[in-house]
Structure formats: structure tokens, C-alpha cells
Amino acid sequence: MRIEKLDQNTKKDLLEKLLKRSPTSYGSYEQSVREILDDVRNRRDQALFEYTEKFDGARISADNILVTEEEIREAYREVDPELVEIIRRSLHNIRTYHEKQRQYSWFDSRPDGTILGQKVTPLARVGVYVPGGKAAYPSSVLMNIAPAKVAGVDEIIMTTPPGKDGKVTATTLVAANEAGADRIYKAGGAQAIAALAFGTESIPKVDKIVGPGNIYVALAKKSVYGHVSIDSVAGPSEILVLADETANPRYVAADLLSQAEHDELASAILVTTSEALAKEVSDWTDRFILELSRGEIIRKSLDNYGHILLADTLEDAIDAANAIASEHMEIVTADPFEVMTKIRNAGAIFIGEYSSEPLGDYFAGPNHVLPTNGTAKFFSPLSVDDFIKKSSIISYSRDALEKVHTDIEKFAEAEHLTAHANSIKVRFDGKD
After folding, report:
1. Which of 260, 275, 258, 273 has its CA nearest to residue 319?
2. Is 327 a catalytic residue?
3. pLDDT tens readout for residues 367-417
4. C-alpha dihedral over 252, 376, 308, 26, to 10 degrees?
5. 409 is catalytic
6. pTM
7. Cβ(309)–Cβ(274) under 8 Å?
8. Which residues is 388 bridged to in the sheet?
9. Residue 344 binned pLDDT confidence (cut-offs 50, 70, 90)
10. How far apart are CA 73 and CA 134, in angstroms?
11. Residue 55 to residues 59, 90, 162, 190, 430: CA-CA distances in angstroms?
């Protein structure tokens, strides 16, 4: 990995380079995505089935698009029972963590007859998109469905691309069943997003779409926002390790590569105050690449977006970390909890040398659906909050309104909205 001196120029260049990876930068795909969305919106199931055969090589119809109970039972027969138990233990941790995020309705009643409050309501129907193809991601299934179940969503619809044999990956089905998906449909890509957003004869329209996907899925979610809600437009994976001379270089190198293996656009950055650590981490990454199955992808990722930044002080390193606002941040310093208090921008923060990033991906409990491309400056991880909505409650008695009615009327008249003022005034003009 390249080692660079951290200064204002290198930080500025790095931020500009990272932003180019955003899905919003790939305008050349947008026309294709728009055509698919419009086609599915107009021709519904017919278009959905045609695209599924074109892109996934599977012949899907109204008779077999919905995953059956027998297909789920078959999936359990195919998956190693030990893995099923691991999925259950992981799911327990995820549920337990998200149950602490629950919000409840509240009401504040005052003696003058004023009642103010907030009504919390779960979303009625949510669509969860799960990638398919060569890779299977049962962890993403758990992370997207579990908070929706905890929130109390009435119906969770999952879509995932089928294989050429018309089947869904067994581990994906097992994870979905364990997490509590109500219905699972064999549909992927932009066409599945269109089906969830607009509805077809087979797939019902949802209120919100969550879940990761390729560039076509990301742009499709961006395009349907407004017809439905979405979680985010996710970009490539990122990790930033903030370390000093006390860090274990072998651990740091291994953690950086854990994200670099996702794809060639993934970003892996070390910010450190130790030149010795920087050199050792660079050496260890070279050694690990020779041993790992996705070494070629890792090498291209590091060539494109892998950086070791050498900072003069820990404060400079912290400033750089906050500017980058990485999806995953590991803190491996002499006093990591003290450093953590100074971090403003990160999707998930991993503290100490035994809190490596994959712990969060699979097992600890916090959600691994995180803000990318610097959006950790204003976005949060997927949570129970994403699956609820809030309504304001307002109730005034006549006595309570009478005390403030002239204030409201004057405010409305100042905005030249006389009908607003009149709506209050008629209650006290004595003409009833």
C-alpha cells in the first residue's frame, strides 16, 4: 500500500477521489435504469418476467415467482445445521440490540386542557432487496429484516434474484425464514425495485425499500424515491483504521483487507502517527494478498483506493478521519475510548484490537447497513427508526385556545393568510 504524508493537499485529493465512487456519479447507467422502471410500471408482471429471463436466465411466471414452503424446507435440508445455528445466534444478537432502539408514543396533558403528543406507528409494508448471483449474503438478510420486525412492520416482502434453475440460494432462504420475512419473491435488479415501488400483479407495492445491490439497484432506488421511501443509495464498502504505535500491524493489515476484498471500488485507509507501523502494515498487506482467495480484487482495490496516511499528531489523524467520515472506523490506539469521544463522523466505530470490522458484519448486533461516501456526516446506520413514522398529536380545549387565539391570528395576518386567521377568529367572534 502507498504511504503518504497527511497534509491539506493529500486530504483534499483523497476526499475528491473517494467521492467519485458514489453511485450518483454513474450517470451513464441512469437511462437504462429509467427504461426498466418505466417498462415494469406500465407492463407490470409481463415486463418483470421478461427482464428476469434476460438478466438472470430464469423463467419465472406468476405460478412460481413466490417462494413456497416446500422450497424453504428444501433450503434447510441443503444448509449445514451448524450454520443454521450460527444464523440463529447472530439473529438473537441483532434483535437484542435493536430492541433497545424501540420508540413509543407519548402524550403530555396540561391542566388548561392542552394535550400534545407523538404517535409512533410502524410502516405497513416494507420491501427488502437481497442481492443474488454468485454470492450469498445471509447476514444482510438478517440486518435488514430484524429491525423491521422489531419495529412492528405489518408485512415484510423480500425480493432476490433467482439462479438459472429458478431457485433462490439456500442460505438466503434460511436466513429470511429465521428473520421473519412474510413473503419471498424471485426477482432482482432494477426490475425488482420497480415492482416493489409500483406494484405488479404478483408483487404488492410497498411503503419503503431497503437493502443493498449493484449500481442498477442503487440507481433504481434513487429514482423511485418519492413514490416510496428508501434507506439510502449505498456506495462501495469502506474502512478506515485510526492507529498509533501501539497497534498490531498484522491485525491492522488483515482488517484493511477485510473490506478491500468486496470489490475494486472498495476503500481501505490507515491513518497513523507511526511511520514504523505504516511500513509494517504495508508489508503485511502484500503478504496476505498472496494467501487470500480474492487477492486479485484486493490488489486492484488497494491500487485504486488504498491509502496509508502518516499524520504528525493524533489530533491531525482524528481530523482526517472526521473529514473522510468512513462507513467503518476502527480505533486502535493507546486510549481508544478517549479517541472515540472526538469522532464525529463514522457509520460504525470499532474500539480496540479485538473489535475487528467483521465482528460487526456478522455477529455483534449493531446493524451493518451503514452510510457510505462521506454521508456518515449526516446519515445513521439502519435502525428501528427506519421502519416507523411519527404523527404529531394536538388537542386544545376552548379555554386553552382562547388564551392564545389573538397571537395566532396576528401571526397569520402577518403572513397575509387571512383564511388561517379567520379559522381561529370564528371560534371567538360571538356569532355562533
Report:
1. 273
2. yes
3. 999 999 999 999 999 999 999 999 999 999 999 999 999 999 999 999 999
4. 120
5. no
6. 0.93
7. no
8. 122
9. very high
10. 22
11. 11, 32, 10, 10, 71
